[in-house]
Amino acid sequence: MKIVLATRNAGKIAELRRILAGFDIVGLEEFPSIADVVETGVTFEENALLKAHAVAQGSGLPAVADDSGLCVDVLGGMPGVFSARWSGKHGDDVANLELLLAQVSDVPADKLTARFTCVAALALPSGESRVVEGVLPGHLVRSPRGSNGFGYDPIFVPEGERRTTAELPPEEKDAISHRGLAFRGLAPIVKQLVRS
Amino acid sequence: MKIVLATRNAGKIAELRRILAGFDIVGLEEFPSIADVVETGVTFEENALLKAHAVAQGSGLPAVADDSGLCVDVLGGMPGVFSARWSGKHGDDVANLELLLAQVSDVPADKLTARFTCVAALALPSGESRVVEGVLPGHLVRSPRGSNGFGYDPIFVPEGERRTTAELPPEEKDAISHRGLAFRGLAPIVKQLVRS
């Protein structure tokens, strides 16, 4: 059976297809009649479930969605669910990253701890759902480095690494990333619920 | 004895002079040799103490400072200590306010709870210090109203009020404001420590 990935973000689609490679996955572009969901949730879980349920209902197929973001400790866990619209313009990666760096410009480097968080949700047309959270702890650097990934990847260095997540090859990033953890955690649940 | 108010913010100076009217208060402009303190703290208390200690040491007089900001619940308590530089440009009230409204534009109105918080600090040249915190709970509105106050006043409505803090006359605002609470709480401590 097909599973719909509830995102139009090209970067996320590429990542998720690698991670859920064993499944017959289709993108949201095959369902043009499903309107974009406004992310009114204030937690990753709320938004992931909003999107997964909307797509499962609209497509009649099991749907997988995620909500993820960068949580900076000195910013009280923000940008968090607002990561993709931090500068006020949805999806402007450069503006979002530059604003974040400007906001913390006076904060000492040793206080710039942060974590990438992802909540992956599976929703069935029946209304049943599951969520799994993945977290990648690390810290921010003030000078962007690397051209892989998207979003805040160029300024985030995972714990135990010297490279930013934008400097990691895709396979290395998947192995440790918040999204990799969440989706690998969800994979056995998808197998169980979708095939039963 | 004189007390130095450790701020160059005209709005704050006007408020604090009304609240601490019984004291012989001088502004930081009388001490041009004291450099501006970089607010490297990540809490209101840290920044208020940084500023009060720097001015007490630089002037040889008791110094009062505050750090204050708007804490929005869905933003994890931010802008918080970053309130005056939320847009990345220090002191640009309009840019800060517009960015905040853009960030929460998809958040339902009933989730836009917030509070103004102020920590007032007294530091003596001896190194002794005291802090008092004041909090004004309320919620955000999406359309700025009123021309009193500064910062985020035009979009903040205190609990039990219909007017924004920018629509309140100065005396009414002082009576309930976070800064009024903190500085009135500090006033007896100033009297005790400075006169003894």
Folded structure, characterized:
Two copies of one chain form a homodimer. Chain A has about 200 residues and is of the alpha/beta class. Chain A has one domain (about 1-195): Maf protein (Alpha-Beta Complex), CATH 3.90.950. Helix content of chain A is about 30%, strand content about 20%. Chain A contains five helices and seven strands. Chain A has helices at about 10-20, 45-60, 95-105, 170-175, 180-195; strands spanning about 5, 25, 65-70, 80, 115-125, 130-140, 155-160. In chain A, strands 1, 2, 3, 4, 5, 6 and 7 form a seven-stranded mixed beta sheet that branches. The N and C termini of chain A lie close together (about 10 Å). Chains A and B meet through helix 3 of A and helix 3 of B. Chains A, B: Its EC number is 3.6.1.66.
Low-confidence stretches of chain A: none
* Helix-strand category of chain A: alpha/beta
| β-sheet strand percentage of chain A | 15-25%
CATH topology of chain A: Maf protein
Largest sheet entry of chain A: 7 strands, mixed
Report the CATH C-level class of chain A: Alpha Beta
Mean pLDDT level of chain A: 92
Instruction: Give the count of structural domains of chain A.
Output: 1
Biggest interface, chains and residue tallies: A-B, 26 and 26 residues
Q: Please provide the count of β strands of chain A.
A: 7
Subunit structure (chains A, B): Homodimer.
GO molecular function (chains A, B): dITP diphosphatase activity; ITP diphosphatase activity; metal ion binding; nucleotide binding; ribonucleoside triphosphate phosphatase activity; XTP diphosphatase activity
EC number (chains A, B): 3.6.1.66
InterPro entries (chains A, B): dITP/XTP_pyrophosphatase (IPR020922), ITPase-like_fam (IPR029001), RdgB/HAM1 (IPR002637)
